[in-house]
Amino acid sequence: MRRPALIRDHEITAVLQSASIAALSLAEESCLGLVLRVDVDALVATLAALKDSDLGFAQLIDLFGADLLEKRGVIEVTYRLRSLERDFDLFVKTDLEAGGVLPSVTGLYLSALLPEREAAEMFGLSLTGHPNPKHLLLTDGVPPMLLKSVPIRSAEESRVAELPKDDLSLQLYNDFMDRGIVPPEDPDDPLQNYLFAGWISPEPPEGPLVPRNIRRVPDDPDALATDHYLLQMGPQHPSTHGVLNMVLEMDGETIISSEAHVGNLHRGIEKLAESRRYNQLGTLVDRGDYVGGINTEMAVALSVEKLAEIEVPQRASWIRVLMAEINRLASNYLWIGPCGLDSGAMGIFLFCLYDRERWQEVLEEVTGQRLMFNYVRPGGVVADITPRAVALIEDMLKDADSRLDEHFEAFMASEIFQQRTRGVGVVTKEDALSLGATGFVARASGIDWDLRRDRPYAAYDKMDFEVMTADEGDIWSRMLCRFDEQRQSLRMIRQCLDGMPEGDFMAKMPRVLRVPEGEAAVPVEAVRGEMEAHIYSDGSDKPYRMRYRPPTLFSLMISDLTLPGHFLADAIVNLGSFDFCFGEVDR
Amino acid sequence: MALDQVFGENSIIFLKSEQLFDWARGRSLWYMAFGIACCSLEGLIAAAGPRWDLDRHGVFFRGVPRHSDVMIVAGTVNRKMAVIVKRLYEQMPEPRYVLSMGACANGGGPFREYPNIVNGVDQIIPVDVYIPGCPPRPESVQYGFLQLRKKINDDAKARLDT
Ligand code: SF4
Question: Which atom of ligand 1 is nearest to the CA of B110?
Answer without folding.
Answer: 7
